[in-house]
Specification:
transmembrane transporter activity; 395 residues; Growth Hormone, Chain: A; single chain; mainly alpha; 17 helices; 79% helix
């Protein structure tokens, strides 16, 4: 194994362990809420503290890697992932969960600010798309794997401090040992701007809004679904549903890459509400098979068609402002990952989980139909008309 190959996989290992910690506690959300005397609304607020950590880092400190280098940020993110796990191990309640998710948000933001650039530098001479694909694969696997590991440990023995916590701490410590040995070839620029304000090119908003819908759905599965499954004594399987709704989207990414961005986005917007309907019906009726099939379909949309279709579209529109346009794209995504989830949790406390799931489904269906219509009828014809002019400008 040559050094370049070894270094790239070392970074991928570190990134996977950073994101593995993010949803490690997901199957225990209901237990934390019960221990704290709160319901779905408070759980959703604690869950959304992750966004309060990640967004300021991505926007206000997006250029920090150019000042301090790549490796220190990855090491700091790994340290924060371990500290977050320790906090929920000592204090298994919603307050500790909110604090832990805030730290994990900061860590993920730091890693996201440099991961693709660092991977590209380590894979010297390689295809930049290969570097991006490796980052996407390792982080997507981690986001789902943490919840799945906790579910597996809970099936064997229920505990608010399952063995998956100690496994994450051990592997993250190992990852720190690997990352600290990686080269850091980027040139430091002490005057690099930290602030990276979002930018929205003409025609990009429908693609960004499609990510809001996608991540709202995945956030609902992670934060709200465990309490619904608990009513049918299926809460120990909630980690598997989290793994399915996040990590299985990787299976559909090769297909999505072969499609034009508008077509990929359109397919995702058709699949998403149908998959959610199956998932919500399964959760309300205690059908684990329906939940997992619905989660698989939602994952194909959220992390396959909509993610890659939208990212490809806005990248093509970005010109020389790719970093700022990407920041705008993920701003919408993280708003979806927090605000709709909190609102749904509050509705669940006030009117019951079934009503909350129905209202979210209606909003998702309307949002998907309107966004899909705008993409197909408004955005894509303009993009085709501008393509020849853009091509001549590039030459």
């Amino acid at each position: 194994m040559n050094a370049q190959y070894r270094h790239s996989w070392g970074l991928a290992f570190g990134l996977c362990l950073i994101t593995l910690a993010v949803n490690l506690q997901a199957p225990l959300y209901t237990a934390y809420a019960q221990a704290s005397g709160h319901g779905a609304g408070a759980t959703a607020v604690a869950f959304s503290c992750y966004v309060l950590g990640v967004l300021p880092v991505l926007l206000a400190f997006g250029g920090i890697a150019d000042r301090v280098g790549r490796r220190p940020l990855i090491l700091l993110a790994l340290g924060l992932s371990m500290l977050a796990t320790v906090v929920t191990s000592i204090w298994p309640n919603l307050i500790a969960l909110g604090l832990a998710r805030l730290m994990m948000g900061v860590g993920t933001g730091l890693a996201s600010a440099t991961a693709t650039a660092y991977m590209t530098e380590l894979m010297t001479g390689g295809d930049t798309r290969a570097a991006a694909n490796r980052v996407t694969a390792s982080t997507s696997l981690g986001f789902g794997l943490g919840a799945a590991l906790t579910s597996l440990f809970l099936i064997v023995q229920h505990s608010v401090v399952p063995g998956s916590f100690w496994l994450q701490l051990t592997l993250a410590a190992l990852a720190m040992g690997v990352v600290v040995r990686l080269p850091d070839p980027a040139t430091r620029n002490s005057h690099a701007p930290l602030l990276r304000l979002p930018l929205f090119p003409a025609g990009s908003l429908p693609y960004s809004f499609s990510m809001l819908l996608a991540w709202a759905t995945s956030g609902l599965v992670i934060a709200i679904l465990p309490s619904v499954l608990a009513a049918h004594a299926l809460q120990q399987w909630s980690g598997l549903s989290t793994f399915t709704v996040i990590s299985c989207g990787l299976l559909f990414q090769p297909w999505a890459r072969r499609l034009p961005p508008a077509r990929a986005t359109g397919i995702g917007l058709l699949v998403l509400p149908v998959s959610y309907a199956l998932l919500a019906w399964g959760a309300s009726n205690g059908s684990l098979l329906a939940v997992l099939l619905g989660a698989l379909g939602a994952s194909s949309a959220c992390y396959g068609f909509l993610y890659l279709g939208g990212l490809s579209a806005i990248t093509a529109m970005a010109g020389l402002e790719k970093a700022r346009v990407s920041a705008g794209f993920f701003l919408f995504a993280y708003i979806g990952f927090s605000l709709p989830v909190v609102v749904t949790g509050v509705v669940a406390d006030a009117f019951g989980a079934d009503m909350a799931l129905i209202l979210f489904g209606v909003a998702l269906m309307v949002g998907s139909l309107v966004t899909g219509w705008v993409v197909v009828r408004k955005v894509e014809p303009v993009a085709r008309a501008l393509a020849p002019a853009q091509l001549s400008d590039n030459h």
